[in-house]
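User: Can you model how iron/sulfur cluster sits in this protein?
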Amino acid sequence: MGTRDLDRRTFLRTTLLGGSSALLASATLPDIARSTARASTFESPIIRRKLGKTGIELPIVSFGVMRADNPALVHEALKLGIVHFDTAHGYQRGRNEEMLGEVFKNYPRDSFVIGTKVHPEEIDRKTGIPGPATTSKAFLERLDTSLKRLRLEYVDILYVHELSRRDAVLHPELLEALTLAKKAGKARHIGFSTHRNEPEAILAAIDGGVHEVVLSSINFKQAHYAEVKHAVEKAAQAGIGIIAMKTMAGAFHDREKTKPINCKAALKFVLQDENVTTAIPGITNFDHLTVNASVNTDLTMTNQELEDLALGQTQGGLYCQGCEHCIPGCPKGLPIPDIMRAYMYTYGYNDPESARTLLTSLDVPDNVCAGCSTCTAVCSKGFAISERVTDVMRLTKVPAEFIT
Ligand code: SF4
Ligand code: SF4
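Assistant: Here's the modeled complex, given as structure tokens:
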């Protein structure tokens, strides 16, 4: 190893472990140190945590099924001890739930845990507030469709999909829908998912007293990680189960996929926080599965993993942290964080179908950036916003049947 390599390694370790970054400020160091001291091996037992007050106990690594289309992966995951599978009404236009239904039809119902997410009928993407078409009835009809696809009488966790505002979390029609679903025995436990403005949404759940589980974006690239961690702690104290998603923060630092994120390290980082019950990393092949499943028995972080995370913090990457700093600068009020998420789905996750589904729900005019001589929306992470918007919006012109 050359002197330059040593210098770089020393610098990165200092940055992650001794610097003044948000990562350190969020009191991550003691967590990492505790985990590292807790040495374990692949033969170690699976680490399990309680999901709030639900009575469910889960291995710390679960299966984000969003992009998976191979039933053999799900069977193999079960063999490796993964029991919790996360899907959504909208994933793969329903095929994702159907695939799980086909897999689980022959398994005892108490041998797996299924979470699915149902979108409200209408959300104003600029304000994050549900529109008048959002009704309990419409939500429950979608749930019935999901249950049919899953071939289940109930899901273990039912989420309202993608809420980011306090008023959305506490929206009466959505609270009624969740409560009725539980009362009717169609959901054992209820909650919501949140991709941005997570602290506000999570803290609203505590005040609402209805939600039992929150599925939240949590990762090492969030500049507001300390705030997310604090909200998670408060929610856990209130008995709400916390499940982490977007742990891989886009999977790549660049659109060309030359700089992969160390996803195993990123997953371990999130799970250092014992208030996080489990995480749902996206798994699309057997290599992903093997790597992620290994974390179930070993949270120890290696020096290399610490360095990779420190390096990752210095990269702009594909992950939009939903900070919304860019929004006031755009005179057209574009839902830029949603568009950036679609960009990440396209180039980080290789999932143009999910990107297109998201983009078509946003109602953005054609060539929307063409009218601006200069882009006045400034990204806190340095993303070239108009370039990314223009690039990814092209997907809306492609007929859905051409993208699978
Ligand atoms: S170029 Fe696009 S993102 Fe930038 S300010 Fe104009 S409409 Fe908004
Ligand atoms: S595009 Fe940049 S400024 Fe806008 S929400 Fe995402 S990270 Fe924040």
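A couple of observations from the model: Residues 327-402 form one domain. The mean pLDDT is 88.
User: Helpful, thanks.
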